[in-house]
Amino acid sequence: MKFDPLGAYRILPGQNYYINAPKQRNLMVVLTVNENVLIPVERLAQEVWHFDLVVGADGAWSRVRPAVRGTGVADRAGAGRGAAAPGRMRTRAGSWYDGTATLLWAGAGEPDPKSSLLTGGGEAGGALLTSAQDLGVDVGDVGRISEPSGRGTGYLALIDVVALWTTGLFSLSLLLSDRVQGRVQGVATLIFSILLILASLVLLVIAFVELTVMVSLFLAAPFGTLAYLALWGFFPVGEASLLLALVLLLKLVWGVLLLLAQPRFLQNKGLVLLVLTTLVCTVVLEFLHRLVPVILVSILDDVGALVFAIVAIVWGLVLLIGSIPAIVKAVRVTATVQ
């Protein structure tokens, strides 16, 4: 039986297996076996071939050095190469184990940049999809899985919306009379702050749960780590950096335009502090993305999202408390007029 370089197969005892691939290609094969053994395999050209990664049923895994020439699995006739008995596999230590193995992936060449499903250092999405189609299995769109872009950038909007709301209120003060603004501002700010706090609390819980899952999978080697890498191991740092740079530029332009439109905005300490908060949070998120290797960026991105949700809750409480005096004053003025 010959293996296509890209495919998923069930390896059974009592057969001879070869890798049908060009000699100049470097292959990576990932296997699971029902015994914690290292399984070397020969190629058709009598060259030694080995499994780069073997994952045992007990969860142990290791990378394998090239095996000794002449070892392999038993052939169909029962005369196994390397004096192997039918249905048995020889380990590097020389002992034999009955069992079967499942080839998860064998890939050659460079990974496909269009695919985000990477396993063992190469592209596996196309391989698994092709093999499933050969077997008549409908796998839907799993071959086109897209990488999650992280929550940090989205949660940053929770703080930005506070800045936008505050800017809108100050802009209305230039257009409306103090009497009209006093009646509208307190109630509107109260409603906005309550909605902001509730939304931030929900998003905080979501980010915390996701962060817990990330850390748990990453620490649960090997299968949990592999699952983490498949889902969150390849964070698009470049795209996120470009987006954050654009957001930071827009915020700087917004601050300059505010200052040019009305210099007395600098006298409002709350607005200045809010502007600084949103600028600092943007810079901090970019710093977190560059702080660790790419496989850990998703974790720090979620940590940043948690911090942003907490900051948004704090600002929501500030707006909520600040709206109470305005509402009381508006009620008193209305009662006095009546």
UniProtKB/TrEMBL annotation:
Stored InterPro entries: FAD/NAD-bd_sf
Tagged with keyword Ubl conjugation: no
Stretches that traverse the bilayer: 154-175, 187-209, 216-235, 241-261, 273-300, 306-328
Keywords assigned by UniProt, alphabetized: Membrane, Transmembrane, Transmembrane helix
Name of the protein: Uncharacterized protein
Organism: Micromonospora matsumotoense
Source lineage: Bacteria, Bacillati, Actinomycetota, Actinomycetes, Micromonosporales
